[in-house]
Amino acid sequence: MDKLLSFLGICKKAGAIEIGEETVGAVVRKGRAVLILTASDAAKNAVKKAENYARSGNCVLIQLPYTKQTLGEMLGRRVCAIMAVTNLSMAVGLAEKLSEERETYKEAYNRLLDKYKRRKHGRRNGRSSKAIGRNANGEV
Fold first, then answer.
1. Greatest extent of the chain over all pairs of C-alpha atoms, in Å
2. pLDDT, tens digit, for every residue of 75-120?
3. Can you tell me the distance from the alpha carbon of 95 to that of 56, in angstroms, rounded to the nearest whole number?
4. Residue 135 pLDDT grade (very low, low, confident, very high; cuts 50, 70, 90)
5. What is the rounded CA–CA span in Å between residue 105 and residue 110?
6. What is d(CA 12, CA 31) in angstroms, rounded to the nearest whole number?
7. Taking the domains of the chain in order of start, what are their residue ranges?
8. Which of 67, 87, 91, 92 is 20 to 30 A from 15 (CA-CA)?
9. How many CB atoms lie within 10 A of CB 133?
10. Alpha helical stretches, state H, 14-86
11. Where are the alpha helices (DSSP H) in 1-140?
């Protein structure tokens, strides 16, 4: 599981993780959250908020096998009970690493992979029609 903690550190350096209840709530409301993660010893209230965020933001929710203190140390904080991954490809990679270690994470990995494939097929030549300044009819 050390690979997973290292991967979380990479996600943080890439700016793809938001930490804490308030910031997670903000990225969910903006529609930027893809995956919500909770610590194994997160308080019931924090887990309930994470469930609500996941439901309202159509995000995948995973409870990590690490304590708040372990996650906090890895992410440069004292503790970390809840976080959100905002980059879909990084979320898929993280879920893949988890699913390699434990079978219970396979469903979350498959949901994220499906979301990734749908998003990828909705683009032309790696760029969305919005990115190249065209509407749905192909007009500029």
1. 52
2. 989 999 999 999 999 999 999 999 998 999 999 999 999 999 998 8
3. 20
4. low
5. 9
6. 19
7. 2-121
8. 67
9. 8
10. 21-29, 44-57, 68-74
11. 2-13, 21-29, 44-57, 68-74, 88-101, 106-121
CA distance 12 to 4: 12
Structural class in CATH, domain 2-121: alpha beta
* Residues 6+ positions from 132 with CB-CB distance below 8 Å: 124
**In this structure, what token pair is assigned to residue 21?**
């209840």
User: Which long-range contacts does 93-99 make (Cβ < 8 Å, 24+ apart)?
Assistant: 93/7, 94/4, 94/7, 94/8, 94/11, 94/35, 95/35, 95/60, 95/62, 97/3, 97/4, 97/7, 98/4, 98/62, 98/64
